[in-house]
Each structure stands twice: as structure tokens, then as C-alpha cells.
Design brief:
The protein is built from one helix and six strands. It is of the alpha+beta class. It has one domain (11-88). Strands 1, 2, 3, 4, 5 and 6 form a six-stranded mixed sheet that branches. The longest helix is centred in the last third of the chain and has 10 residues, at 79-88. It is globular. The structure holds zinc ion. Zinc ion is lined by residues 17, 19-20, 22, 40, 42-43, 45.
Length: 89
């Protein structure tokens, strides 16, 4: 059994696009809940965490270039700042 509080702690997780079949492995960089979905960088549709039996705990995983990972929000990333950022884009 895992020594962590969350099943997805430090897991490499497979996300699959429901539209274009794009697949990405996203790393959960902490002992926390990982979102079940994200946005496909290729077509903009939803990517869903699939094939959970493939999840691998990789505490010391080294991110490859451009690989995405989940992490805790920093204070400066709270909602009001996000709104400001949207206005500047
Ligand atoms: Zn897609």
C-alpha cells in the first residue's frame, strides 16, 4: 500500500483527448488530488484521466521538456489575479 494520503500522489498519469486522441502523460508533483481532466493542447477539447491502472508512482520523476505537471496553486495565482491576467491577454 501507499504511504501517501492520495491515491494519485506523485503519479505519472495518462490523459486522453476525447476528440482527437491526443495523449499526454502528466505528472502529479505532490501528495494531492490530481484533476480528472484538462484541456487538449491540440484541439481544445477535454482530456480525461484514463487507464488509471497505468498510473505509476514516480516520486523522483524528472520532467522532460514541456511535460505538464500538477502542483499546488501559489498565492499570486488566486482567482482575482487570474482575472487580471485574462484582461491583459
Ligand atoms: Zn484533442
Amino acid at each position: 500500500m501507499s504511504n501517501y494520503n492520495h491515491r494519485e500522489a506523485f503519479c505519472l498519469m495518462e490523459y486522453c483527448c476525447e476528440e482527437c486522441t491526443h495523449v499526454e502523460i502528466i505528472w502529479n508533483s505532490r501528495d494531492g488530488v490530481a484533476p480528472s481532466g484538462t484541456t487538449c493542447p491540440s484541439c481544445g477539447a477535454s482530456m480525461i484521466h484514463k487507464n488509471m491502472w497505468k498510473d505509476v508512482v514516480a516520486v523522483n520523476h524528472k520532467l522532460h521538456k514541456f511535460q505538464k505537471f500538477w502542483r499546488d496553486e501559489k498565492d499570486e495565482e488566486k482567482r482575482p489575479m487570474l482575472d487580471v491576467k485574462m484582461e491583459n491577454e
